[in-house]
Design goal:
globular; Rossmann fold; 6-stranded parallel sheet; Glyco_trans_4-like_N
Length: 369
Amino acid sequence: MKICMLTSGHDIFDNRIYYKEILSLKKQFNEIYLVAPGEKDFVTEDGIIVKCFPKRKNWIDRFEPMNRMFKIAKEINADIYHAHEPDSFQVAVKLKKELGCKIIYDSHEYHPEGFAEHFKFGRSIIKKVIYLYEKHLGKQADAIISVNELLINKFKRYNNNVVMLPNYPVLNEIKIEKEYEKKPMFVYIGGLREDRGILKILEAIELIKDEDYKYLFIGPFETFDFEQKCKKFAKDRLRNVDIKFTGKIPHMQVFDYLKKAYAGFVLLQPTNWRYVNSEPIKIFEYMATKTAVISSNFPMFEKIIKNPDAGISVDPTNTQTIADAIKYLASNHGKAKELGENGYKKVLELYNWSVCEDRLLKLYNELYK
């Protein structure tokens, strides 16, 4: 069977698309293609054939990239096309009409809400229009994949073949032996944006700046202006604090930092509805590396890190409560270790990709039959 993944906005080596779904499918199927934004075609070390088209210049530049994606994907003539955004799935729908292939819509984000955020006015109308557009496309999918119960229930209203594949970590790629350093270290992993609580963390650090702790922010800044804002804050108000912004680093190198960390931050802000109703991969990655979690006190977050406790939930808008959580774990190494161990056990029992891999392979085998 020939499989083709389609993405218009994700990286070629996206954690979910490549390291989870594609490598899981590779265990049973030999011929797998990935059509994605990039500079040139190549074959990965895992034998995945990557076909590239130029990245779009901005978020509104969608028509020409999708035309190029369609031409490339049609030449591949796959049995199943697996798309990861509404616009790449539109390409899949067109391919189904022309080739008679099977198509999968993999929605691991709140696309209508996210698209509407680009507009200053009329967001509710735009969100509704995109929702109706997504619904129209989704009815034509042979299967829909998503990541949490909210999205699953939405898609079940108009498609009978919906499968939940949460963004759980792959256990066999993670080294879980902790190597704590003498100086307590705290990390943040992911894109650096204000609504992800980065400034709140910096402000909390200022409240305890006399304590000898280390802080790592691992990931790219969303904008140059926000980067300058954060670095100016650190320079002016955290002058003697051991703090580092690493930028984007290789996927596997992230775990080298995590195994030394006392705790990891997931302090998304309540101003963004999508964040409040998400299950961030960062939480699971922290837990999988025996790292305690300092998270926003959103119900979906607390459901993950409670029973048994794998971290501390705080009001993400309150810098004092964030500072208190940092100081508590830094001065109670045994508690930080206990929370990390609890999280790891929960990942072994429930929150790991092997559960999702079985569902994914079962879906593909059913579609191929």
